[in-house]
Amino acid sequence: MVVFSFLFAFFTNWISYPPVYDVSTIDGERILFIQEMEYIEDSTRSLTFEQVREQRFHTNASFQPRDYNPSSAYWVKVRLYIPKDNQEQWLIEFYDQTIDNLRAYVPTVQGDYRLLQFGDQFPFDQKTFEHKNFEVLINDRLEGMQTFYFRIESHAYVDIRIVLSTINQFVHYALNEYFLYGIFYGMILMIILYNILIYIAIREIKNLYYTFYILSVGVFAMCVDGIAYQYLWPNWPEWNQVAHGVALFSVIFWSILFSRKFLNVTARAPKLTKIIDAVLILRTLWFVFALAFDHELFQLRNIEIIPLSIIFYASIYVWARGYKPARFFVVAYGFLFLGFLVKAMVMLSVIPISIPSYYSLHVSFVVEMLFLSFALSDRVRILKSMRDRALFRIIKQHEENMSLKDKVNKELEQRIRLRTIEMEDKNNLLREVNEKLTAQTKEISQINSILDLDNWKLKNNIKEILQNRLVNKNLTLEEFNGIFPDKLSCYRFLERIKWEESFKCNKCNNDKYITGKDHFSRRCSRCGYIESVTSNTIFHGIRFPIEKAFYILYVTNNQSERFTLDQLSEMLDLRRNTIWSFKKKIEELLSTVDKPEKDYLRNFFMVHSN
């Protein structure tokens, strides 16, 4: 029976084209490419299943990914031969989890077809298995020749590869794949947490940029793998239509910011800084336009080669100019650039789709993350080495400074010692000079004492002479002004005459007083009456200087006729009538008052001689 089945399959494959796949000849798994399968391109997307079954399917061995038309729907037919004694449970799997709408027309035991509908535009729980890919389970009761039809419709490129495998093989492959995904995303999570801790510790913005970049890489990889659809937004399938574009933009955006900061291109390559900023702005505008108006622009992923190329060139340029931390950065972005380049060549059908080419971007991300981590640690190591060298130079310079300081201190001590000796000599000389000056000062003081005594005697003699002349009534105005030069001397003279013996208040006869607010005035301590020095005298209420009034009284007492009123007016710079009035007031008092008061007024200036 087995021989018959083998011969039947061989004969069928040789007679018909394309071949029928006998599951009994498949060792656990068989990958079917679009180039070896029958398909129909429905450019109108209007053909029904009944119409398609009547159509003639064809194969195209030269079909390439660039030949895929997103505006069309593709019908694929797969013929399987299932032996009657088949003991395995088989399934059909589509690797590309980005298919928008996948309809599977599966034959039943009754001879008709059952429709199964999948796609990333439907909720995740609509899948047959909770797996990132799309799987169609083959009924284990089917046998003989069975034909499966699949309708594929998507707004973007679809990798039309169908895998025919057993359940055991699928479970084995799925577990290994998810295990590798766990390692991959675990590395990303560890690097993110590590850089967050580093940022909290040292507060360098480049670590924060790198954290966002790695996070964006993780989200983008999850979108590519279908993991994000399974775990992040299983009930929001509409996100699948823009998630790739958003995540890829985030990768490029944070990559540019991190590279710009890490390489310090602002200081090391100013011209490249302007180019990088321009590319970042244009890429951002492109993203905003695509997100708001045309999601189809997200499919032009090959444009990311431009910013990656500029960053790669900038890293090489900065490294060539002597920035050592850029060496690991160059290697890291070299692998990333290579991964994007391989992915772009796959999309352009330059190289065929295979496991290495399909996962080239993942491998490049892993290698890039490792080397970028090396770059960050190498930068820290270089900075630490520079800090250690700077610290060593500081210590050495400090030692030199201390040595120089000791030398200078010794010189200063020597100079201070010499200066001290010199100062002591000068102090001794000054001491001798001071002793001489002290002796001379004593001699001068003795001479000054003798001179002061002589001056005092001379002044007394002059004063006595003036007083005698004052009494003898022959003083000139200049000589009189020598005795009474100003009003203060006159007030002081009046105070002496008026209150020499005692004070008695004119209001209450109290003999206690305090000094008044005006010069030479006294205030009664009992009644508060204030008495000026001129009150109750002939000088009270005069409207000209008192020293001139003193001279008029002096001339009047002398009864001298040698000065006329006109002469006195010219001498004293007073009006003639003023002098005449005051002189008449004196004469009236001398003629009317009692004899004691008259004698007091007559002998007014005699007090000055006592």
Structure summary:
The chain is of the alpha+beta class and 610 residues long.
Could you outline the blueprint of secondary structure elements for this entry?
Blueprint: H1 2-15, E1 21-22, E2 29-33, E3 38-42, H2 49-53, E4 73-82, E5 90-94, E6 101-107, E7 113-118, E8 134-137, E9 144-153, E10 161-166, H3 167-202, H4 205-225, H5 227-231, H6 243-263, H7 265-268, H8 270-292, H9 305-320, H10 326-347, H11 355-358, H12 360-471, H13 477-483, H14 487-499, E11 513-515, E12 522-524, E13 530-531, H15 546-558, H16 565-572, H17 576-592, H18 595-602
Helix pairs in contact: 3-4, 3-12, 4-6, 6-8, 6-9, 8-9, 9-10, 10-12, 15-17, 17-18
How is this structure best described in words?
By secondary structure, this protein is an alpha+beta fold. Helices cover 57% and strands 11% of the residues. It has helices spanning 2-15, 49-53, 167-202, 205-225, 227-231, 243-263, 265-268, 270-292, 305-320, 326-347, 355-358, 360-471, 477-483, 487-499, 546-558, 565-572, 576-592, 595-602; strands at residues 21-22, 29-33, 38-42, 73-82, 90-94, 101-107, 113-118, 134-137, 144-153, 161-166, 513-515, 522-524, 530-531. It is elongated, with a radius of gyration of 62 Å.
